[in-house]
Amino acid sequence: MPWTTAPPRRLVILGVAASDCHVVANQLIARFLRDEGFEVENLGACTPVEEFARACVRRPEAEALLVGSLNGHIHEDLRGLREAKRSGRVHCPVVVGGNLSVGSSKSLSSDRRLYALGVDRIVRDPATLPTVLAELRTAGGHFTVDRAVADRAVSGQAVGAQPAWSGPARVS
To answer: Rounded CA gap, 136 and 146, in Å?
Structure first.
């Protein structure tokens, strides 16, 4: 019987947004993804953008950066994300999930603000993460944005509009 090596485990970087100390869901998601065959570098709670960026630089093989938030302050916590992506320190798609805004009502404008900050995907159900990660991998993690559509979506000129990506839909 010939010896074969196991395929490399797919790496994701996981953490909870900077102002958020909730770790139960973070630990459950890490366990779930490990059970699905992923290598998970879990940065834990209260993770600032700069720490996510350092992890991406340290682990260039990471195929996604997963950021959770339960306190609803992710918009403030991700303010430095666009610059970290622009500089190349965050090189992979950024996926966010959890309670992404304060209060019980959720709005499309909240999602638009996240896309404007540099988020690539919003996940509503963590059980879809393996599928989302497979879609991102199939797309090569390289989304191309139609700037005019993205600018209209972010400014609210087109109700319900979202940036047009070459990959799959961005809310899962």
So the answer is: 18
How far, in Å, CA of 143 to CA of 10, rounded? 19
Please report the pLDDT score of residue 4 as a whole number.
76
pTM of the model: 0.79
Q: In a 10 Å sphere around its CB, with 0-12 CB exposed, 13-18 middle and 19+ buried, how is residue 120 labelled? A: buried
Specify which residues 121 forms β-bridges with: 95
Q: CA 162 → CA 134, 139, 141, 148, 154, distances in Å?
A: 21, 18, 18, 11, 8
- Report the C-alpha gap between 28 and 45 in whole angstroms: 13
What would the 3-class secondary structure string for 19-77 be?
Answer: CCCCCHHHHHHHHHHHHCCEEEEECCCCECHHHHHHHHHHCCCCCEEEEEECCCCHHHH
CA pair distance 59, 104, nearest whole angstrom:
36
Q: Regarding predicted confidence, which is higher, 169 or 28?
A: 28
Read off the amino acid at residue 49.
V
Instruction: Report the distance separating Cα 33 and Cα 41, nearest Å.
Output: 11
Distances from the Cα of 60 to the Cα of 39, 65, 162, angstroms: 13, 11, 28
Separation of first and last alpha carbons in the chain: 42
